[in-house]
Amino acid sequence: MKIFVTKQIPGEHLEKLKNVGYEVLVVEPLEKIKDSDALLTLLTDRVDGDLMDAAGPGLKVISNYAVGYDNIDIKAASDRGIVVANTPCDEVNEAVAEHTWALILALARKIVESDEFIRDRGYFAGKGGYKGWEPDLFLGTNLIGKTLGIVGLGRIGTMVARRAQGYNMRLLYFKHTDDASVLNTLLSESDL
């Protein structure tokens, strides 16, 4: 079996595939995937019907090295009898939820602005930077009791929501099955 991979991925996963007898080729650009049996793509790769046809009639599976698969034309794959898979796992979901919280905290507590100010760069370049402690310098926003709006309450959204409980936050969420009024409420009532 010939597996085309669109970019080198971290770890020893590709070596494991090679060790059990698969031919694994890291190929860029995607147009060079002729005569492949399987395609391992990344979220940044656009996989449409033309690309599937370029792979040839032997293409049986496309696996996305990502939680989602928005970058793959599912109908085109289904029309060609190609199975599409993704790689959701709690380890990745937890990492994304933690990163989301890192961004929330960075925004609420003005971490980037504070860093730029102390280093005298970015917006603050040439303005002198840190001169000493001041009582209202980059206080930011307290998260306790605020309302957090989450668009998409799948695995990752649920993990983000679970972390919000530690801040005693009110949670609003929008699922793809909700009507637009739920999203409008979320946008108008959320602090974050």
Percent helix, as a range, is 25-40%
Mean pLDDT, as a whole number? 91
Q: How many distinct helices?
A: 7
Structural class of the secondary structure composition? alpha/beta
Strand order of the largest sheet: 2-1-3-4-5
Extract low-pLDDT stretches: none
Write down the overall geometry. elongated
Number of strand elements? 7
Distance between the termini: 48 Å
Largest sheet: 5 strands, parallel
Radius of gyration, taken over Cα atoms and rounded to an integer in Å = 23 Å
How much beta, percentage-wise?
15-25%
Element-level helix/strand string: EHEEHEHEHHEHEH
How is the secondary structure organized here?
Elements: E1 2-5, H1 13-19, E2 23-26, E3 38-41, H2 49-55, E4 61-64, H3 74-79, E5 83-86, H4 90-108, H5 111-119, E6 147-151, H6 155-164, E7 170-174, H7 180-189
Parallel strand pairs: 1-2, 1-3, 3-4, 4-5, 6-7
Helix pairs in contact: 4-6
Task: Provide an overview of this structure.
- There is one protein chain.
- With 192 residues, the chain is of the alpha/beta class.
- The chain is 35% helix and 16% strand.
- It contains seven helices and seven strands; from the N terminus they run E-H-E-E-H-E-H-E-H-H-E-H-E-H.
- The strands form two sheets. A five-stranded parallel beta sheet has the order 2-1-3-4-5. A two-stranded parallel sheet has the order 6-7.
- It is elongated, with a radius of gyration of 23 Å.
- The mean pLDDT is 91.
